[in-house]
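Dear colleague,

Thank you for sharing your sequence with our group. We've completed the structure prediction you requested, and as agreed, I am returning the results in plain text so they can be pasted directly into your records. Please verify that the sequence below matches your submission; if there's any discrepancy, let me know and we will rerun it promptly.
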Amino acid sequence: FEEVIGDSENISFHPSYVAEQLQLGDCISVDFNSVAFKVIEKSQKYCYAKVLTGGTVGNNKAANLDREINLDPITEKDKKAIKIARGMGITNFALSFANSKEDVAMMRKLVGENSSIISKIESRSGLINLESILELTDEILIDRGDLSRQVELQKIPFFQCIQTFQVFLLQQRHWKHEYLLIPISFFGKASIFSFLYLHGLQV
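Please find the predicted C-alpha cells below.
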C-alpha cells in the first residue's frame, strides 16, 4: 500500500501498514465522525470503500476503526524526539494512547527510571487495562475528547469516577493528609459508602 495525495476519491493512512490490516466490512470514521466509510473490496495495493457519511477531511485527522488493530505505541519519530528531550534535561513525558502495561514499559525504557510518565487514557483498551497501567505509570490523564471516539460521551464521567477510585485504592497508603472529592451523584450516597466500607476506608 502506497500513500497517495488525498482528494474526493482517495485517502491515505499513516503509517501505511494500517491500510494493510483493513478487512472487508470494516467501518472507519474520520475526525469525530465527520466522515465515515466501509471497506467493500480489498486488493494487494489498495482498498475500495463505500462512503456512509460524506463531509470534508483535513490534513492529519484522527481515524477510528470499529475493532482493534496493531499499532506501534511509540514511533521512530517519537524515539528521536525523546532522545533530544532527554539531552535537554527534560524529565516529564506524556504517552499518548497508553493502551497497555507493555506500552508504558516500552516508554520507561526510553525515558529512564528517573523520568515521570503521564499515561494518557484515550481508548477503550486503556480503560480496560487501567489497573495494570497504574502499576508502571507515574500519572494518568483522561482525555475525554479522544476517549469519546470509542466510549459514549455521557458514560465518561462514570468511568472517571471508577478511575479515581482505582488510583486512590492503589495509593492510599501513601496519602496522609490529602482530601479526595468524589461526585456522589454519579453513584448515589449509599453506593459510595458501601464501596468505601468494603475496601476498609473510613468515611
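Summary note from our side: The chain has eight helices and seven strands.

Kind regards,
the structure core
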